[in-house]
Design a protein that fits this description.
The complex is a heterodimer. By secondary structure, chain A is an all-alpha fold. Chain A is 72% helix and 1% strand. Chain B is α/β, with parallel strands linked by helices. The chains are: A mainly alpha, B alpha/beta. At the A-B interface, loops of A face helix 3, helix 4, helix 19 and helix 20 of B.
Chain lengths: 314, 411
């Protein structure tokens, strides 16, 4: 495109010239939107639209094959009387609370590994290893651990002369057993976040703190942790999201059993909408909508904080 | 840009060519079992079919059994094969009602299947029409460790009292009477079906799975009472909720459990695990009420033509082919199951012979809990059975819950 500007000639078509000049005048404002457009369109089609579509389906009864039938709020009404739904909701809360243990545990491991010893990189990568392997593998390994007949838990119990519990077969222990398995990779994830954060801790402040006599816990609490705030924030967010969408482990280890007692909303939704005995898409969508609402609370908080931090940063 | 257009045109041309060649007698067949015996015997049948119809270009897809159950919903409407395997009874009803299976009554009529396949005709019929053809079924019953029974001087129990007695004797000798793995739920339904069929009879069982009887009915409670008696007599292995049916074979093979309520497909797995014919045997589930004629469980596997199939003409040839007596005879010999066609011969395996007798004398044939009841009811019911096996004292709560679900499912 040439930038040779033709001097305006009297009597030339004014409209065309004004339009071109409008674009010229707003080019800087428009350019970012043009660059953003592909991503925005993709996001709208593959993320935003399905959300509304899913909410829309939750007002129907539909088996995925025949005609969908409008039932209004009945799917939500059914949820109110559904024991399985409450079990799943309760388990989701347990997941949220206990999964948080991954954050301090990750910090502890990161602090432990943040030293210069020969071969520290090897140790770091070994600690990071559980996050790299697939959740399916984690689930299988822990299912074997827990097996009362040949698993290590059974062996230990028998060594002490006790009868081993069936962790995955007992409604009292099953959710905790799965969460424990989930913590293993999640701690590794938090650890890596903190390790990168620790790289950015300014040595000057540590030095200054040391001169002022801060050591041990006081140093950690007043000097190190404030500088790790961004890392903590991200670690909490990914852990919350991880807890809410816990799915793979449950699918591998118990399929929500025994009799639905280890279900969480994400898996229950899948079970109702897509599994062998499911295909109630409306009901599944209603569960998805509830789960989405819960997540929305965290997402809004997350966005609000980002917005606030950015405004302060300026 | 020019390049993209070119590729698109090329793609369209290829597609058109593929569509063109589909007219040249291509037959796509989708089968749903990757286990060694079913897969090999299916491949044998395809070889026979090709030899008989050399003009037909047969393509086969073999899916994993569980994956097939989900995939079929997509491929029936999106990219249908010409023939697909599936199950009889209520399991095919959603596809029939959605118009995704072709009416194949003409195949039945032309080949006289209403005579030769009469035993399964009711479970292939919806709205007075047939929607597929059966190729195999198999009996359920109690498989037991013959060597252990002989060692303890036990005999095959014929009545409920005898079964309880056998169970007690086994328990006293530190052998758990029954092995079972309920992680995937359906195994528990096998036990429930038999208890209910023996306690209340075939018609009652069908009424229950069709939603015409309440779960809190006293007769259903009586069935659960029997179940309780069985558990009191030693019952089932511990930790069954974390085991699949294959996992549950281990205690049976190691001699820690004596009996297994199962379908005949388990025999192959038992033999693979090292048990010989002298160590395993079969008996019909014992009589509870002598006034009630024995009905049996015999899930039927079937072939169907999707409504969106490209080549329905040759698909019909295939359906007629797989229901033929000679094919069913040889196929089921290789499969280790029973042919449906009454003119076919049963393999000389002792389990098949016995199963054939049992099914011939049956007062009624149930498909299985999760094929007789609608999907949602089946799932809730089987979860209830599992919960009952772990917490028998919760029976009231379980039955009330099932009633609530029943009310919604069958409205």
């Amino acid at each position: 495109m040439t930038d040779v500007v033709v001097p305006p000639i009297a009597g030339s078509p004014a409209g065309a010239r004004r339009r071109r000049s409008w674009y010229r005048r707003n080019r800087i404002a428009l350019a970012p939107w043009l660059f953003l457009a592909p991503a925005l369109i993709m996001f709208a089609i593959y993320v935003v639209a399905p959300i509304f579509q899913s909410i829309w389906i939750s007002f129907y009864e539909w088996d995925g094959l025949g005609e969908a039938e409008w039932v209004g709020l009945r799917n939500y009404e059914d949820l109110l009387y559904d024991d399985r739904f409450y079990t799943s909701l309760k388990n989701n809360v347990i997941w949220l609370v206990l999964y948080m243990a991954a954050v301090p545990a990750g910090l502890a491991v990161a602090l432990f590994l943040n030293q210069t010893v020969a071969g520290i990189r090897v140790y770091k990568s070994l600690f990071f290893f559980p996050f790299v392997i697939s959740q399916v593998v984690v689930g299988l390994i822990f299912a074997w651990f827990y097996n009362p007949n040949f698993g290590i838990v059974g062996q230990v119990w028998e060594f002490f002369g006790a009868r081993p519990p069936s962790i995955l077969g007992d409604e009292r222990y099953v959710t905790y057993g799965i969460i424990f398995a989930g913590l293993w990779p999640q701690i590794a994830y938090c650890m890596i976040l903190y390790l990168t954060g620790l790289n950015n801790v300014s040595p000057d402040q540590v030095e200054a703190g040391r001169l002022d006599g801060a050591r041990g816990w006081r140093m950690l609490w007043h000097v190190i942790l404030p500088q790790l705030r961004p890392a903590t924030f991200i670690a909490v967010v990914v852990t919350v999201i991880g807890a809410l969408r816990s799915f793979d482990l449950i699918a591998i280890m118990t399929q929500g059993g025994p009799y639905g007692s280890s279900n969480v909303l994400a898996y229950y939704m899948y079970e109702v909408a897509l599994s062998e005995y499911g295909f109630r898409y409306g009901y599944g969508s209603a569960i998805a909508t509830v789960l989405f609402t819960i997540m929305l609370v965290y997402i809004s908080y997350f966005l609000w904080r980002m917005w606030r931090d950015e405004r302060e940063g300026r | 840009m020019k390049h993209i257009v070119k590729t698109a045109v090329l793609g369209a041309a290829t597609l058109a060519m593929m569509a063109g060649s589909a007219l040249a007698r291509d037959l796509v067949i989708t089968f749903d079992d990757l286990n060694p015996a079913p897969k090999e015997s299916f491949e044998w049948v395809i070889e026979q079919f090709k030899a008989e119809y050399p003009d037909i270009n047969v393509t086969t897809n073999i899916n994993d059994r569980e994956a097939h159950k989900t995939a079929i919903r997509n491929f029936l409407s999106a990219d249908a094969p010409d023939v697909t395997s599936w199950y009889a009874g209520n399991r095919m009803a959603p596809f029939v009602e959605a118009g995704l299976f072709d009416d194949v009554s003409d195949v039945w009529e032309e080949n006289g299947f209403d005579e030769t396949l009469a035993s399964t005709m009711p479970s292939m019929t919806i709205d007075g029409k047939q929607w597929g053809v059966p190729y195999t079924y198999y009996q359920w019953g109690v498989y037991y460790r013959k060597d252990i029974f002989e060692e303890l001087g036990l005999e095959e129990p014929q009545t409920w009292e005898e079964l309880l007695e056998v169970s007690r004797t086994l328990s006293e000798n530190d052998i758990t009477p029954f092995t079972i793995g309920t992680q995937f739920l359906w195994t528990a339904a096998g036990v429930f079906d038999y208890l209910n069929l023996r306690q209340n009879g075939y018609d009652f069982h069908m009424d229950l799975t069709a939603g015409r009887v309440d779960w809190t009915d006293d007769r259903v409670r009586a069935t659960f009472d029997r179940w309780n008696e069985l558990m009191d007599a030693g019952g089932f292995i511990e930790n069954h909720a974390t085991m699949s049916w294959q996992d549950a074979l281990a205690p049976f093979v190691q001699g820690e459990a004596g009996m297994y309520v199962m379908g005949n497909f388990a025999v192959a797995a038992m033999r693979d695990a090292g048990l010989t014919n002298d160590q395993i045997d079969f008996f019909q589930f014992p009589v509870i009420d002598p006034d009630i004629p024995n009905a049996e469980e015999a899930p039927t596997d079937t072939w169907h033509i999707p409504s969106n199939a490209q080549n329905k003409e040759d698909a019909r040839l295939f359906l007629a082919f797989v229901a033929r007596p000679d094919i069913q005879t040889e196929w089921n010999k290789r499969l280790g199951q029973l042919p449906v066609n009454s003119e076919a011969e049963v393999g000389d395996d002792k389990f098949l012979q016995q199963g054939f007798e049992v099914l011939n004398d049956a007062a009624g044939i149930a498909q299985f809990f999760d094929r007789d009841a609608p999907a949602e009811m089946a799932k809730a019911g089987m979860e209830g059975f599992q919960e009952f096996m772990i917490n028998p004292d919760r029976l009231d709560r379980i039955l009330e819950r099932l009633d609530r679900i029943q009310e919604r499912v069958y409205e």
